[in-house]
Amino acid sequence: TTWVYRFGNGRSDGSKDQKALLGGKGANLSEMSGIGLPVPPGYTITTEACEYVVEHDGTWPDELDDQVRAGIRHVEEAMGRTFGDPENPLLVSVRSGAALSMPGMMDSVLNLGLNDQVVEGIARQTGNERFAYDAYRRLIDMFGDVVVGIDREKFEHAITSMKEERGVENDIDLNANDLRELVDRYKAIYRKETGRMFPDDPWQQLRFAIDAVFGSWTNERAVKYREINSITGLKGTAVNVQAMVYGNMGEDSGTGVCFTRNPATGENKLYGEFLLNAQGEDVVAGIRTPKDIKELDRLMPEIYAELQEHTTRLERHYGNMQDIEFTVQQGELFILQTRDGKRTGPAAIRIAVEMVDEGLTSESDAVRDLVEPGHVEQLLHPRFKNENGYAEKVLGTGLPASPGAAVGRVVFTADDAEEWNQRGESVILVRVETSPEDVGGMDAAEGILTSRGGMTSHAAVVARGWGTPCVAGCDDIVVNAQRKTFTNGEVTVQEGDWISINGSTGEVILGKQPLVDPELSGEFSRFMTWADDLRTLGVRANADTPEDARQALEFGAEGIGLARTEHMFFGDDRIAKMQRMILADSEEERRDALEALLPFQREDFAGLFQAMKGRPVTIRLLDPPLHEFLPHDAEEQEVLAERLEMPVRRVREKIEQHAEMNPMLGHRGCRLGVTHAEITEMQARAILEAAIDVSTDDAPVRPEIMVPLVSTKAEFDHQRSVIDEVAAAVFEERGKEVQYRVGTMIEIPRAALRAGEIAEAADFFSFGTNDLTQMTFGFSRDDAGRFLPYYVQENLLPADPFQTLDQEGVGEMVSIGTNRGRKVKPKLQVGICGEHGGDPASVKFCHDTDLDYVSCSPFRVPIARLAAAQAVT
Ligand code: PEP
Ligand code: MG
Predict the structure, then answer these.
(1) Where does the record place the Pyruvate phosphate dikinase AMP/ATP-binding domain (predicted)?
(2) Of the four listed, 120, 257, 763, 828, which is most buried by Cβ atoms within 10 Å?
(3) Which numbered atom of ligand 1 lies nearest the CA of 768?
């Protein structure tokens, strides 16, 4: 088996298409080497090796050790140096790199190969003793932390004491002798903490480091990150072993990260940060505040020009905005890494549109690769109502690290963020800086505020990836995590206080600022038309009111896939009539009450038809158990009794009679229409009369009447004949007809199984996957929240099946129902109107299952449009 792929020095065993095997970083290193970019030579140990080692309790596969050594020989040849040779030493780094980027989740160790002899060799070779010992102490620090789990604070403490003893402020001010002594102190810490000596055999160091990277795949943070981001199906992490290049060899050296375009706004301009005389981790860790990349043009114009040439080349080559790490070692530029850059929603749209306009990619590739459903979701996020209205409440301004507005109560630890969020509180997580341990809390927060770190700090990168608003590096404030306060010197904010943050401007604002819904840009509409051109699946909206319908249209819905009628009965003037209807003693009384409800319903439906201008509108007949419309508290029951001129006792008895042990499995859906046909009659009449009223010759209304919760054909037949009879009567009375269709929801497993016979009578199907999930699993929709999170956490389920369709089980019901229905009626219209209609993975499933449309809440319509386009292969 080939476990090791080499790259660099004109060689490249792998390519960018091998991310699953080589990880994103490894695949791209091979690719870059292949197209002739200056990449430090190295090799990648495959994700399969990681999988093997994890599965075999840390044992390496037979050939791995030999291949690792052969890999080192490749690097030695390329560099003209020898690993472990004090005369002419080679140092290497070991880094993790999974197929998907997991920022900060995995570990790396730099400067491997140093020991007391080699460090002298490095000093001689570079003529820089200070540099050599600085590299050595960094090795012990990282190795101690990553490989053997020593608390980094211990090393931090040692260097801080050393600086105090020497009376200096910065690390840079410690000289070679200081650092030599610091190495001894670090080794002593290592010995004290582990009971062992720091290993001075370079091969042993390498082996331990590789094992640590393998092990980091299953550490808590990595597992949690994958969980939060629903990352499954990966074998493990790859391990990249690479020759060290140094950005800290003096003022002609440096290191930085850059994006080929601005990841916050999308502007087509090299964007990034760098530090002179520093190592890569200094930039990412946010320890020193880096300089803007423009400065590099001033300080090292030739290097800047070369960098620009490479970055432009990489963007063209990958057809996507790139996130690139580079190092300059004594005037020589190396590209260390490239990957598709994470970006905000607005940036994603702008980049996609501009890259198409610049001829760098096609419209369909832009739709497929440059914008994710989550980006679209961000664009639909709220903004502040008045960005100019809070000037005097601004506590400070930091970096606009991830745009959008967030309002919440301040918490100071990730654990508190998670806990408060569980209680239903909106929180803003405030930290000096964040670390990978904080991801749970960051995910739970509405927004993130840090007082330290740059645009590429951990907080900024993670927040941008999720679309969580973030203000980073706000040094106007001082955070006291112990006391749970922060202050700008004038105002002190305590835990639990409300603040607002503006991730687009970097402002931190006292109090709860009002938010508004966003407006969508012209670029966005253009992009979405490309998505529409690509997709074959229809997208409708679930909308019950004309306002929702208009919103849905604005977001590009092609019709209404579900208008739930129950909400229509809750208005002040209506609920009384509804209650009268429910509590009526005779059918006649019930009919009277329904008669009074008819004009309201007719008006409701006319509003929907008008808003939708001739597009399809599916109206569902009354679905919930009637008990839901009756008052449950004693006082309201008294009011009702008075209104109905009935003794309270009698009212209570009647309400009692309607109570059910299992209302969701009870007298609801078409079962109501079967026992009370007059309800179906009234609703059918209201729909058809409204359709006639609103229809014009140009835009005829063709209502789709939907019967809920059918389990047998007989139920559907019953309801259909009631509706058809009403239709005949209405058309006769009005002397005018409309085309109408009568279909059913498929939301009970029996209906999915018997879809063939139901299709004989039904004009269309719509899968109600909320109930179908409830009834296929036997999970109560209302109560499963108590245990489902546990199921997901413990991997008993890959995800909450009420959020993303369980394709194996519930999905099989959907395909059985579709196939059996279409076998009888090949052109049967089939849609889905459960919550899953707006979930990208479920949308893909619906496309693959050949449904005609998905229907989802208006705000998810654009997401569904994009997901439907991306489902086309
Ligand atoms: C469903 O069950 O999926 C559905 C859309 O109907 P409701 O959520 O109203 O039960
Ligand atoms: Mg339902």
Answers:
(1) 20-58, 63-293, 304-356
(2) 257
(3) 3
Q: Is the CB of 770 inside a 6 Å radius of any atom of ligand 1? A: yes
What is the predicted pLDDT for the residue at 453? 76
* pLDDT, average across residues 325-336: 94
Percentage above 70 pLDDT, the chain: 98
Assess whether the C-beta atom of 543 lies below 6 angstroms from ligand 1.
Answer: no
Residue 150: strand, helix, or coil:
coil
Q: Report which secondary-structure segment, H or E, holds 353.
A: helix 345-357
How many whole angstroms from 747 Cα to the centroid of ligand 1? 8
Strands 829-832, 853-856: pairing is parallel
Q: How confident is the model at residue 184 (pLDDT cuts 50, 70, 90)?
A: very high
Ligand 1 site, residue 14, Cβ cutoff 6 A = no
Residues 537-551 pLDDT 10s: 999 999 999 998 998
Which atom of ligand 1 is found nearest the CA of 566? 9
Rounded Cα distance between 623 and 655, Å, is 18
* Ligand 2 midpoint to CA 767 (Å): 9
Helices (H) and strands (E) in the chain, counts: 34, 34
* pLDDT > 60? residue 105: no
Closest-lying ligand 1 atom to the alpha carbon of residue 835 = 3
34 annotated as a binding-site residue: no
CA of 579 to the centre of ligand 2 (A): 22
Q: How far is CA 44 from the centre of its chain?
A: 29
**Tens-place pLDDT, residues 829-845:** 999 999 899 999 999 99
Q: How far is CA 471 from CA 464, 514, 665, 758, in A?
A: 11, 18, 48, 56
| pTM listed for this prediction | 0.80
Query: Is 381 noted as a catalytic residue in this protein?
Result: no
List, in order, residues 6 or more apart from 671 with CB less than 8 Å away: 709, 715
> Looking at ligand 1, which residue's alpha carbon is closest to its atom 8?
770
Q: Which helix (H) or strand (E) holds 449?
A: strand 447-450
- At 197-224, the pLDDT tens digits run 999 999 999 999 999 999 889 888 888 8
Say if CB 493 and CB 510 are below 8 A apart: yes
What CA–CA distance (Å, rounded) separates 252 from 840? 48
Confirm if 455 and 465 have CB atoms less than 8 A apart. no
Residue 833 known to be catalytic: yes
Q: How confident is the model at residue 136 (pLDDT cuts 50, 70, 90)?
A: very high
The answer to whether 768 is a known ligand-binding residue is yes
**pLDDT tens readout for residues 259-273:** 999 998 899 999 999
Determine the distance separating the centroid of ligand 1 and the alpha carbon of 788, expressed in angstroms. Answer: 19
Q: Is 747 annotated as a binding residue?
A: yes
827 Cα: distance to centroid of ligand 1 (angstroms):
24
**Start-to-end Cα distance in the chain:** 32
User: Could you give the CA distance from residue 552 to residue 563 in angstroms, rounded to a whole number?
Assistant: 12
CA dist 41 and 12 (Å) reads 10
Comparing 792 with 141, the larger pLDDT belongs to 141
pLDDT digits (tens, 9 = 90+) for 702-716: 999 999 999 999 999
Please indicate whether residue 747, judged by its CB atom, sits closer than 6 Å to ligand 1: yes
Name the residue with the closest Cα to ligand 1, atom 4.
Answer: 768
Q: Is 248 annotated as a binding residue?
A: no
Amino acid at 555: F
488 in a labelled binding site:
no
Look up the ipTM and state it. Answer: 0.99
pLDDT, position 656:
92
Residue recorded with tokens 């080499």:
6
Print burial letters for 598-616: b (CB count within 10 Å at least 16), e (below 16): bebbbebbbbbbbbbebbb
- DSSP H helices in 358-412: 363-365, 373-379
What residues contact 54, with CB distance under 8 A and at least 6 apart? 214, 217, 218, 236
Q: Give the nearest ligand 1 atom to 774 CA.
A: 2
Judged by its nearest atom, the ligand closest to the C-alpha of residue 709 is 2
Atom 9 in ligand 1: residue holding the nearest Cα: 564
Q: Are 857 and 542 in contact (CB under 8 A)?
A: yes
